[in-house]
């Protein structure tokens, strides 16, 4: 198994409650698999989410190969699994999550890395924010005030 890219890569990430419930189900299943395997278990105490059986982790390229076949089988446009990470960051930005929180979640050691990667999304969100301020345009408010008084 490969070590993380940087110190920031190894971190705790807070997940939604529904996901944690799914992980509890997985953990119970993992314990049963380990018990059934007995001395054949090769994973020690490591709890890999993706394993080939008997606790051994998948080969690093296996999820990508499986995902490619899955998208072909279901006539879906192929996107890299890593692109889902970008999708998640984009969704968080569009839902007003701070760039600092996103940086920490992604494990970027520098705020600038996150800002550079997602600047285009931040700009579109900034445009939406600016558009919401249009209702405070004094020229619009003066003409509507004059009409209301007349």
From TrEMBL:
Domain annotation Tyr recombinase: ranges: 1-131
Swiss-Prot/TrEMBL keywords: DNA recombination
Per its UniProt record, what InterPro entries does this chain match? DNA_brk_join_enz, Integrase-like_cat_sf, Integrase_catalytic, Tyrosine_recombinase_XerCD
Under PROSITE patterns, the record lists: TYR_RECOMBINASE
Q: Which domain of life is it from?
A: Bacteria
This chain's protein is named Tyrosine recombinase XerC
- The encoding gene: xerC_4
